[in-house]
Amino acid sequence: MDSIRLNQLIEENYQKIFLLALKMLKNYEDAEDATQDIFLKVYENIKSFRKEAKFTTWIYRIALNHIYYMNNKRNKEISRFPEAHEMRTEMNANPSSVLHEKELFVSLENVINLLSPRQKEVFVMRYYNQLPFKKIAQILGKSLGTVKSNYFFAMQKIKNDLQNQNLLEFQE
């Protein structure tokens, strides 16, 4: 793979990998460091890319492995960086809706952190990165049914927890 094509692929995937790292690591600086480390690994190991899978699938696998390594390495000290939804709500003119939206997003983040590791990674890749289930299954090396099941149970947990907190009303 030539360096121009590699740079193009990195540019196309950088934001997605950064968002994945941010959602999994819950720290802006750690996510920046992880993303740089991930793409350094991609660059250093590009010759080992066997083209049996898509390039993006290979990048996501490297990313998840590195993120797990970072999570295990640190002592679970999590700091929060103001996320896009928090910055958006501060510009909202209605204080009541600002408060409700902040409560909702804080609760959502808390519920996501309570998900099992598999449910969390599937949820983040599907919800935030908007990856299709089939691609998530390839990245994780799991069956399509397993991935869909993890997502279903993650959504059920999120729905139930937010309903129990009276933050959302779902209609069946």
Key terms:
globular, 172 residues, single chain, Rna Polymerase Sigma Factor, Chain: A, 2 domains, Arc Repressor Mutant, subunit A
Sum up the overall morphology in one term. globular
The overall pLDDT average reads 79
Low-confidence stretches: 75-90
CATH topology of the largest domain: Arc Repressor Mutant, subunit A
Secondary-structure element pattern, one letter each? HHHHHHHH
* DSSP summary, beta strand count: 0
Number of helices: 8
What's the CATH class of the largest domain, please? Answer: Mainly Alpha
Tally the structural domains.
2
Q: For this entry, what is the oligomeric state of its chains?
A: single chain
Task: Please estimate the helix content.
Answer: over 70%
What separation lies between the terminal Cα atoms? 50 Å
The CATH architecture category of the largest domain equals Orthogonal Bundle
> How large a portion of the residues is in β-strands, by DSSP E?
under 5%
Structural class: mainly alpha
Describe the structure.
This protein has 172 residues and is an all-alpha fold. It has helices at residues 3-25, 28-44, 55-73, 84-90, 95-114, 117-128, 133-140, 144-164. It contains 8 helices and no strands. The protein folds into 2 domains: 3-73, Rna Polymerase Sigma Factor, Chain: A; 92-164, Arc Repressor Mutant, subunit A (Orthogonal Bundle), CATH 1.10.10. Mean pLDDT is 79; it is low at 75-90. The longest helix is centred in the N-terminal third of the chain and has 23 residues, at 3-25.
